[in-house]
Amino acid sequence: MPQRVVVADAFTSEPFAGNPAAVCVLQKPAPEGWMQRVARELNLSETAFVVPESARGRFGLRWFTPACEVDLCGHATLATAHVLWEEGHLPSGAEAVFHTRSGRLAAHREQDRIVLDFPAEPVAACSPPAGLAQALGAEPVWVGKGRGHWLAELASEKAVRGLAPDTAALARMGAGSLIVTARSDEPADDVVSRYFAPDYGIAEDPVTGAAHCAIGPYWAGKLGKQDLVARQASARGGTLWVGVRGDRVHLGGHAVTVLRGELLHGPPA
Fold first, then answer.
1. What is the CATH number of domain 3-109+253-263?
2. In the chain, which ranges are continuous DSSP H helix?
3. For the whole model, what pTM was predicted?
4. Which residues are catalytic?
5. Got the DSSP string for 135-186?
6. How far apart are CA 21 and CA 43, in angstroms?
7. CATH fold label, 124-246
8. Where along the chain do its domains lie?
9. Could you report the per-residue pLDDT of 29-82, keeping only the tens digit for each?
């Protein structure tokens, strides 16, 4: 049977900006191989597969890049919550609770934003991977590592925006995924970042919710403030409202539906 697919741009209030994610609301769990092939076919940074559970407002959620399944994805979770409310799978005022490889995640509406409740990712200073500065084409002023990400602070927003890294060299280093960040020069924003994950088949991700689970605690400690406005400075760009709440991070943003369609070849019966 055909499978409905919705594509939504996440962490933006304008179409064709932010980070696009495909969302498939399934009737029942699908084979992993089929989900991976769909993600490869759609060729977005992430495709989300969501399955309603017996309890109202509870869902199983998995995320796939074109290359592999990932443990955590912010923008595809935000897109999923947006689709569930917009298409009537969940009442507009109800919280969405997701059971994932990263545990329990949740999303709710707060004024005009969707707010995600994600685990914080503290980052500890460490020696950089060999060749990092050469691969980036810039010398970090600080390097650290969290559970799933390396984080490199650069001296300025201009340095972050001007990066043209050698992503093949980053992949050879085996660093997995790398956040590059700096203080913002813009009064409306606190911090800027970019995100590179060639090991996961993503040269540069447009806007990365999961990366802000590390960016939030890092800059909250440096700036002495728990609520931040973060701008991801990719070509598409996106804005996140980041609230650090102990061992959790709240990620706020908008989403816009840009495409609805059908896969003619749905999951095997």
1. 3.10.310.10
2. 32-42, 74-86, 132-136, 157-161, 167-173, 212-223
3. 0.94
4. 46
5. HHTS--SEEEE-SS-EEEE-S-HHHHHT----HHHHHHHT---EEEEEE-SS
6. 10
7. Diaminopimelate Epimerase; Chain A, domain 1 (3.10.310)
8. 3-109+253-263, 124-246
9. 999 999 999 999 999 999 999 999 987 899 999 999 999 999 999 999 999 999
